[in-house]
C-alpha cells in the first residue's frame, strides 16, 4: 500500500478528465433537461450506455481494465473439451429463440405488505403455473394458522419462517409465459431489513412491477420518507430498469374507486418521472391480488370496468420490450446462489444466477473469480427447463464439475477463462447521492452492494463534485457531499477485493449501491479500477 | 491496571510503575509508550556462554532489564505487546546497547520513564487505572450467513471471530437446503459464543441483526442450552439483549451503541459517547457546515479563535513517532480545554474511532459559525490532502493490526 498513493493520484486526475468529457457528451443528447437535479443523474447510466452501444469500437479502446479489454476470440480455450461436432452455435440459436419468444427477467417490488407475493402468487395461479390442488392445500393450511388471506403468497413464500410471519424475506424465483414472451419472475421482499436481498434480485431484472397498496393510509405510509416505495423505485432505476408497471393493488377494498386510482397515479407518476422513468415506459394498472381481478381475466359486472378500459396485467406484461443483450461480450455470470450437489441427484456444485454478458454451453469451461479455479459445465437449466446453452439475460442454474465449493462465495463471478473479470479493492465511482440525513465525508463507512454481494467499504476520498447541468467540476476535494449531489469518489473495500468491471465494459457489473444504517445513501457506476488482484 | 508508583518532577520528567491486569491494559500501555522512553520490566533472555573447553551452552534467564524503546508492536487479538530497544542498564548477563525485545506480561509490574509526561499521557494512566469505568460487553452482530462475534470494552472493540457461511437461498419447491444451511450457521455462532465469551466478566451479551436472525439465534442458543443442560448459559439468560441493526458487518456496532436499551445497559460508556459525538458532528455538518470542521488546519484555525465546543481526536495521532506531531496535537487539546471546550479522545480500536481516523483523525464542533475558515485556505487545500493521505496510511497500519 505504501507506494501506491502517488500513482493513484496520477490516475485519479486522468480518470476525472475522462468522465467529465463524457458528461458533456451525455448532456448534449439529453432531451429531458427539466428533470430534477438529483434524479437526472440516475439517468446518467443509461445515457452512457447508449454511447457505449453506439460506438463499440471506442469503448474497447478506452477500456480501463486491461484484463478484459479486448473481446478477441474468447471461444478458443473454453470449448476445448467439446468435440467440434457437438458445439452449439449459441448466437444462431439465440436468434432463433428470440424470434420465437424473448426471455425477460421481471422483479416485483413495493412497500412491505403491499401484497406483492399474493399478487404474483395469484397471477401465477391464474396463468396455470400453479395447480388447483396446490392452491387448495395452501388455503387449508393458511386457514389453520389463521392467515387465510396469505394462501396465494405461499406460492412464493416457501420457508416456514416466511409463512409464519407472513412476510417475504428472500427473493423467490419463478417463471411463466405470456403469448409472446417468457418471464423469469423475481419476487422481492418489501421489508426494509431485507433490502440487500431485494437488491440482489433487482440486479438481475430487466423490467419491474411496482405494487402499491391503494387502501387509505397504506399508500401514504409506503410513499412517505420511511416507506420503501420510493427507495425501491429509485433502486431499480439505478440498477438499470427502465420499463415498469405500477400495479395499484387492493383497489377492491376501495370499492374500485376511480378518484383513488387517479390520485395515486398522479402522485406516483410525478415522482417516478422525476426519478428518471420515461412516461411512455410507465403504465398504471388497477388490480386486486386477493380476488384476482384484472390480472388475467376481467369479470363481467365488476365496477372497475365502468371506468377502466385499459389492459389486464398480463396483457401489459406481455408488452414489455426485451432489452438489448450483451451477447458479443465475454461471458460473465454473477453467482446469486450456490449449493453442493448437482441438478437432480448428480454430483458437483450447482450455481444459480443471471448471465450478465456473453453466452455459455454445456461442456464449456468457466472460471470462478475470485479464486481462479476452473470448472466444466455439466448440465444446465434455463428457467427450470433443461438447456444446452444459455445467453446474456438468461436466469440459469448450472452444475459444475472440477470446482470445489470452497472456491465459491456470494460475490463470485463466473467468466470465460479467456477474459476473466478483474478483481479489485480500490476503485473510482461516480455517485448520485440520495436523500440522506447526514452528509458523506471522506472516511465514511458504507456497505457496498454489488450484484448479490454486500461488503463493508469506505469512501476514502471525495475527488470532486460535479454539476449536473454542465458536467463541469464544481469543486475539487469537497469537504462533504450533501444530498442530491453528484460526485466522483474513491472507494476502498475493507475486507477483501471483489470482482468488478467498469460501467463501460459491463453495465451490470459496473453498478454499485452504497448503503449505511439501513438506508441507501448513493448509487453509482464504476468509472475506473485502481488496483488489480488481491 | 493498578498504579503502583508515580514520581514526576517539575520539569515533567519522571516515571510511573504500573501493574497490568487485563487485556485492555496492554492497549493503554501501547498508547503510552513512545520511542525514546525507557522501559524497565522483567523479561526472559537466552544467554549463550562458552566454557573454557570451547563447548557452548545456552540458557534462558529471567532478569529485569531497562531498554530505550525503539519500536512497539501490538496485537489486539491476543493482547500481546512487544517492545524492542537497546538495553540501557548494565547487568550480569547483558551488555549495554545490545538489543532486546520485551514481551510485556500481565500481572507483572513494569516501570516507564519519560522525559516528558504530557497531559495526554497522564490522563491515559488515570483512565487505565480507573476501575469504575470498566464495562465489558459481548456483541454478536449478524445477518443470514455472516456473524461477527465481538468483545467491546471501554477502549477496544475486538472481533473475536468472523463467521461466514454460505447459505443456499430458497429455491422453487425446495427449502431444505436453505434450512439446513441456516441451522449450520446458527450452530457455528453458538459454538463461537461458548468459546469466546467469558460469562463471568461480561456485563451483557448483545445480539444484533436485521430481520429475525437475532430472534432465531436467541432461540437456537437457548434450545441448545436446554438440550445440553448448559447451566452457565441458563444463568446468564437475563444478560442477553436483542437489538435491531441494519447489517451483520462490523460497522453496525455503531448503530447498536446508539440503541437506547444498549445505552442503558452500558451506562454511558466511552464507546457510546464517542458514537453520539461523531453523530452530532455529522448532523452539524449537514445543518450548519460552518460550525463543523475536520482536518488539522481547519480545526487549528477554529481553535485560534476559541470557537471549539467539542474536539474529537483519535489516539492514533498521539501514538505518532514524530514528537513534533504529537506536541502539535497536545497543544490543540490543551488549547481547547483552556477555552472551555470538551475534548474526546477516540480509541482507534472502536468503529467510531476508525471512522474518525479516516476523517483525518481530528474534527470539531464549533460553538459559533466561522464561515470564513474554508475560504481562507483555498490554496492550502492541496497541502491538506497530503495530510489526509498520510492519515489514511496510518489507517492502513491500524488495519494491519488485524482489525
TrEMBL record, chain A:
UniProt-listed InterPro entries: GTP-eEF1A_C, P-loop_NTPase, T_Tr_GTP-bd_dom, TRAFAC_GTPase_members, Transl_B-barrel_sf, Transl_elong_EF1A/Init_IF2_C
GO biological process: cytoplasmic translational termination
Annotated stretches, region: Disordered: 1-31, 58-81
Location in or out of the cell: Cytoplasm
Pfam family membership, one: GTP_EFTU
Catalysed conversion reaction: GTP + H2O = GDP + phosphate + H(+)
Compositional bias (Polar residues): 1-18, 61-75
Acidic residues composition bias: residue spans: 22-31
Entry's Gene Ontology molecular function annotations: GTP binding; GTPase activity
Domain Tr-type G: 101-327
GO cellular component, one term: cytosol
This protein's UniProt keywords: Cytoplasm, GTP-binding, Hydrolase, Nucleotide-binding, Protein biosynthesis
Quaternary structure and partners: Component of the Dom34-Hbs1 complex, also named Pelota-HBS1L complex, composed of dom34 and hbs1.
Protein name: Elongation factor 1 alpha-like protein
Native source species: Umbelopsis ramanniana AG
Phylogenetic placement of the source organism: Eukaryota, Fungi, Fungi incertae sedis, Mucoromycota, Mucoromycotina
TrEMBL record, chain B:
GO biological process, one term: nuclear-transcribed mRNA catabolic process, non-stop decay
Record GO cellular component, one term: cytoplasm
GO molecular function, one term: metal ion binding
Location of the eRF1/Pelota-like N-terminal domain: 1-130
Cofactor(s) the protein needs: a divalent metal cation
Key words of the record: Cytoplasm, Metal-binding
Disordered: region residues: 375-403
SUPFAM superfamilies registered for this protein in UniProt: Dom34/Pelota N-terminal domain-like, L30e-like, Translational machinery components
Compartments it resides in: Cytoplasm
UniProt xrefs under SMART domains: eRF1_1 (SM01194)
Pfam families: eRF1_2, eRF1_3, Pelota_N
Function of the protein: Component of the Dom34-Hbs1 complex, a complex that recognizes stalled ribosomes and triggers the No-Go Decay (NGD) pathway. In the Dom34-Hbs1 complex, dom34 recognizes ribosomes stalled at the 3' end of an mRNA and engages stalled ribosomes by destabilizing mRNA in the mRNA channel. Following ribosome-binding, the Dom34-Hbs1 complex promotes the disassembly of stalled ribosomes, followed by degradation of damaged mRNAs as part of the NGD pathway.
Family: Belongs to the eukaryotic release factor 1 family. Pelota subfamily.
Name recorded for this polypeptide: Protein DOM34 homolog
Taxonomic source organism: Umbelopsis ramanniana AG
Amino acid at each position: 500500500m505504501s507506494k501506491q498513493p502517488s500513482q493513484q493520484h496520477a490516475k485519479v486526475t486522468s480518470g476525472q478528465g475522462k468522465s467529465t468529457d463524457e458528461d458533456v457528451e451525455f448532456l448534449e443528447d439529453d432531451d429531458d433537461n427539466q428533470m430534477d437535479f438529483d434524479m437526472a443523474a440516475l439517468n446518467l447510466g443509461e445515457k452512457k450506455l447508449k454511447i457505449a452501444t453506439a460506438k463499440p469500437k471506442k469503448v474497447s479502446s478506452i477500456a480501463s481494465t486491461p484484463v478484459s479489454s479486448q473481446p478477441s476470440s474468447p471461444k478458443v480455450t473454453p470449448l476445448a473439451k467439446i468435440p467440434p461436432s457437438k458445439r452449439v452455435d449459441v448466437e444462431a440459436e439465440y436468434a432463433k429463440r428470440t424470434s420465437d419468444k424473448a426471455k425477460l427477467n421481471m422483479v416485483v417490488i413495493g412497500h412491505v405488505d403491499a401484497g406483492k407475493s399474493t399478487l404474483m402468487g395469484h397471477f401465477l395461479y391464474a396463468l396455470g403455473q400453479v395447480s388447483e390442488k396446490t392452491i387448495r392445500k395452501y388455503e387449508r393450511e393458511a386457514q389453520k394458522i389463521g392467515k387465510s388471506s396469505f394462501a396465494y403468497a405461499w406460492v412464493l413464500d416457501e420457508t416456514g419462517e416466511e409463512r409464519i410471519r407472513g412476510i417475504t424475506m428472500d427473493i423467490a424465483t419463478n417463471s411463466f409465459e405470456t403469448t409472446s414472451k417468457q418471464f423469469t419472475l423475481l419476487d422481492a421482499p418489501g421489508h426494509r431489513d431485507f433490502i440487500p436481498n431485494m437488491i440482489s434480485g433487482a440486479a438481475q431484472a430487466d423490467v419491474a412491477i411496482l405494487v402499491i397498496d391503494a387502501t387509505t393510509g397504506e399508500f401514504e405510509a409506503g410513499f412517505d420518507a420511511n416507506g420503501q416505495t420510493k427507495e425501491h423505485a429509485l433502486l431499480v432505476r439505478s440498477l438499470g430498469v427502465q420499463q415498469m408497471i405500477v400495479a395499484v393493488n387492493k383497489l377492491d377494498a376501495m370499492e374500485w374507486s376511480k378518484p383513488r386510482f387517479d390520485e395515486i397515479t398522479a402522485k406516483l407518476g410525478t415522482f417516478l418521472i422525476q426519478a428518471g422513468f420515461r412516461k411512455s415506459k410507465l403504465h398504471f394498472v388497477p388490480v386486486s391480488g386477493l380476488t384476482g381481478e384484472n390480472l388475467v381475466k376481467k369479470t363481467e359486472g365488476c365496477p372497475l370496468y365502468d371506468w377502466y378500459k385499459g389492459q389486464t396485467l398480463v396483457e401489459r406484461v406481455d408488452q414489455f420490450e426485451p432489452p438489448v443483450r450483451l451477447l458479443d461480450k465475454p461471458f460473465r455470470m454473477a453467482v446469486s446462489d450456490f449449493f453442493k450437489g448437482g441438478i437432480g441427484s448428480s454430483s458437483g456444485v450447482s450455481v444459480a444466477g443471471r448471465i450478465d454478458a456473453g453466452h455459455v454451453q454445456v461442456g464449456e469451461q468457466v472460471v470462478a473469480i475470485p479464486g481462479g479455479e476452473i470448472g466444466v459445465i455439466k448440465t444446465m437449466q434455463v428457467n427450470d427447463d433443461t438447456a444446452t446453452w444459455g445467453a446474456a439475460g438468461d436466469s440459469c442454474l448450472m452444475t459444475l464439475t472440477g470446482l470445489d465449493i470452497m472456491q465459491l462465495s456470494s460475490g463470485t463471478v463466473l467468466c470465460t477463462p479467456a477474459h476473466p473479470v478483474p478483481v479489485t479493492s480500490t476503485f473510482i465511482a461516480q455517485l448520485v447521492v440520495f436523500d440522506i440525513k447526514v452528509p458523506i465525508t471522506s472516511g465514511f463507512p458504507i456497505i457496498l452492494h454489488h450484484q448479490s454481494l454486500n461488503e463493508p467499504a469506505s469512501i476514502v476520498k471525495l475527488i470532486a463534485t460535479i454539476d449536473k447541468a454542465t458536467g463541469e467540476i464544481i469543486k475539487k476535494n469537497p469537504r462533504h457531499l450533501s444530498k442530491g449531489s453528484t460526485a466522483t469518489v474513491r472507494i476502498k473495500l475493507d475486507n477483501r477485493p471483489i470482482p468488478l468491471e467498469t460501467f463501460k465494459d459491463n453495465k451490470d457489473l459496473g453498478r454499485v449501491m452504497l448503503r449505511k444504517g439501513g438506508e441507501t445513501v448513493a448509487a453509482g457506476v464504476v468509472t475506473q479500477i485502481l488496483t488489480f488482484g488481491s | 491496571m493498578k498504579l503502583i508508583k508515580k514520581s514526576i518532577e517539575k520539569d515533567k520528567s519522571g516515571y510511573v510503575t504500573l501493574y497490568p491486569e487485563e487485556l485492555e491494559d496492554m492497549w493503554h500501555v501501547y498508547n503510552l509508550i513512545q520511542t525514546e522512553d525507557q522501559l524497565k520490566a522483567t523479561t526472559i533472555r537466552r544467554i549463550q556462554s562458552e566454557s573454557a573447553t570451547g563447548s557452548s551452552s545456552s540458557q534462558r534467564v529471567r532478569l529485569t532489564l531497562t531498554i530505550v524503546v525503539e519500536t512497539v508492536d501490538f496485537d489486539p487479538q491476543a493482547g500481546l505487546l512487544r517492545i524492542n530497544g537497546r538495553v540501557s542498564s548494565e547487568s550480569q548477563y547483558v551488555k549495554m546497547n545490545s538489543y532486546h525485545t520485551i514481551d510485556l506480561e500481565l500481572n507483572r509490574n513494569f516501570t516507564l520513564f519519560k522525559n516528558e509526561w504530557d497531559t495526554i499521557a497522564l490522563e491515559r494512566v488515570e483512565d487505565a487505572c480507573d476501575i469504575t469505568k470498566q464495562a465489558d460487553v459481548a456483541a454478536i452482530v449478524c445477518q443470514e450467513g455472516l456473524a461477527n462475534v465481538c468483545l467491546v470494552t471501554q477502549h477496544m472493540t475486538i472481533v473475536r471471530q468472523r463467521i461466514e457461511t454460505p447459505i443456499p437461498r430458497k429455491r422453487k419447491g425446495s427449502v431444505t437446503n436453505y434450512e439446513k444451511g441456516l441451522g449450520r450457521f446458527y450452530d457455528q455462532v453458538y459454538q463461537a459464543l461458548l468459546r469466546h465469551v467469558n460469562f463471568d466478566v461480561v456485563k451483557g451479551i448483545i445480539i444484533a441483526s436485521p430481520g429475525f436472525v437475532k430472534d432465531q439465534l436467541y432461540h437456537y442458543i437457548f434450545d441448545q442450552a436446554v438440550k445440553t443442560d448448559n447451566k452457565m448459559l441458563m444463568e446468564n439468560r437475563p444478560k442477553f439483549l436483542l437489538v435491531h441493526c441494519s447489517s451483520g458487518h462490523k460497522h453496525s456496532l455503531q448503530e447498536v451503541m446508539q440503541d437506547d436499551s444498549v445505552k442503558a445497559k452500558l451506562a454511558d460508556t466511552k464507546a457510546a459517547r464517542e458514537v453520539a459525538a461523531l453523530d452530532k458532528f455529522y448532523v452539524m455538518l449537514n445543518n450548519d457546515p460552518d460550525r463543523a470542521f475536520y482536518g488539522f488546519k481547519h480545526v487549528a484555525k477554529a481553535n485560534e479563535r476559541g470557537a471549539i465546543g467539542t474536539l474529537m481526536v483519535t489516539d492514533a495521532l498521539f501514538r505518532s513517532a514524530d514528537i513534533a506531531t504529537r506536541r502539535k496535537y497536545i497543544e490543540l487539546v490543551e488549547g481547547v480545554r483552556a477555552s472551555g471546550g470538551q475534548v474526546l479522545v477516540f480509541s482507534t480500536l472502536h468503529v467510531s474511532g476508525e471512522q474518525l481516523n479516516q476523517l483525518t483523525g481530528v474534527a470539531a464542533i464549533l460553538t459559533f459559525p466561522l464561515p470564513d475558515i474554508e475560504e481562507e485556505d483555498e490554496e492550502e487545500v492541496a497541502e491538506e490532502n497530503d495530510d489526509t493521505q498520510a492519515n489514511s496510511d496510518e489507517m492502513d497500519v491500524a488495519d494491519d493490526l488485524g482489525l
